[in-house]
Amino acid sequence: MLSVKEAENIIFNLAKPLNNQQDIETVDLFTATGRILASPVTSKLDFPHWDNSAMDGYAVIYQDVKQASEEKPAVLKLVEDIPAGYQPQSNIQSGQAARIFTGAVMPKGADTVVMQENTRREANQVFILAAPKPQEFVRYRGAYYQAGTELLPAGIKLNPPEIAILAASQCTKLNVYRRPRVAILSTGNELVTPDEKLQVGQIVDSNQYALAALVKQSGGEPLMLGIIKDEPEALKQAISQAISKADLVLSSGGVSVGDYDYVEQILASLEGEIKVRAVAMQPGKPLTVATFPISNSPIYFGLPGNPVSALVSYLRFVQPVIKKLSGIVEGWKPTFIKAQIRQNLSSNGKRETYIWGKLNLVDGVYQFSVAGGNKSSGNLIDLAQTNAFAVLEVGKLSVNVGEEIWVLQV
Ligand code: AMP
Ligand code: MG
User: Fold this and answer.
1) Which of 14, 306, 345, 355 is 20 to 30 A from 32 (CA-CA)?
2) Model confidence over 357-369: pLDDT tens digits?
3) Ligand with the closest atom to the CA of 308
């Protein structure tokens, strides 16, 4: 059986980012948040757009005021008032100054701004009471960004700061990667949808919903293919349909060793190359990963049927794959954080063990609290508000309160 690390290597290497020419769409700024840039962005604007003042004060010529002090102020004649948004008319000559406000355009001739606090005003004269530094409080055109150079690189996620940058730079149409398409199907004769009346022995297909929610959260587009019976023909048809239209296929159930577990057999009949059969982790041991001998083959993930196991396998392996496919260059890998544990943890030590819980930052220290209730991999109910797993490596039988342990943040 593969270790988690070995399985991770195989799976992450299978994942190839979408194509930055074909797999793109154009979005506007309002819908761009969370999307991944497919082409670098350049702006036609310098930033700042004009030489402007960083202070309320007076625009002056440095040479005129470099000796100024409280005892020997430089006295300048005011020739113009320049509020923000106004185009200055004057050309400042030696002995002159302009009243200027934060963000307002510098007048020609002036090279320095003296802050208001270091001045005294009398009628149309200003007394400069302290020498500024040369070019002080002037924000020069193009000091932060020069028109035509790269503003944002491809492969980054557009978060609120990037949206602000793009708005300020008047870049309102953006090439982003399309969302990876993820087909989701649930296998099992016992399954019904959440709105069907439950007969004895039936189980509600929660995995379909959980996986769709996760796929959306990971930046993918879920294609819900519904519940498929444990019948080879029905499964074959559903899986081949899924393969033909998705970048990833997620099925849950049917990958264990039971009599009705047909997934691997169907994958083989579709010429699937099985890359992973099982992983030495707990929960989540049954995991089938396959690709197909076609161009742009989707990656097939046969996830365990148990709701908790399905979610663990998804978060450990599928989420990073969707993020990598989505074109993001950095930050697609799982995030592990060292945290102090608040309860004793134990494992049989045979497989890497994932324990659900909640990660909190308390006084600057990460703390991990185990989810309450029954730890059965069928018990979803106590997962509410969890956001992490504590990870006990193989051979680790116990960890005591207060010890630090790696925690997978999800
Ligand atoms: P399997 O791997 O198909 O044997 O399923 C293992 C367990 O998970 C069984 O108890 C199933 O009833 C349950 N299960 C399978 N698929 C789902 C699903 N889509 N939603 C909720 N529970 C499921
Ligand atoms: Mg089943």
Assistant:
1) 14
2) 999 999 999 999 9
3) 1
Is residue 318 predicted with pLDDT exceeding 90? yes
The answer to whether residues 139 and 103 touch, using CB atoms and an 8 Å cutoff, is: no
Tokens 């969302």, residue?
179
For ligand 1, mutation pick of 306, 314, 381 (most atoms within 8 Å of CB): 306
In the reported structure, the alpha carbon of residue 262 is separated from the centroid of ligand 2 by a whole-number distance in angstroms of 9
pTM of the model: 0.91
Which residues are in the CB-under-5-Å shell of ion ligand 2? 188, 253-254, 305
Q: What is the pLDDT of residues 328-352, one digit of tens each?
A: 999 999 999 999 999 999 999 999 9
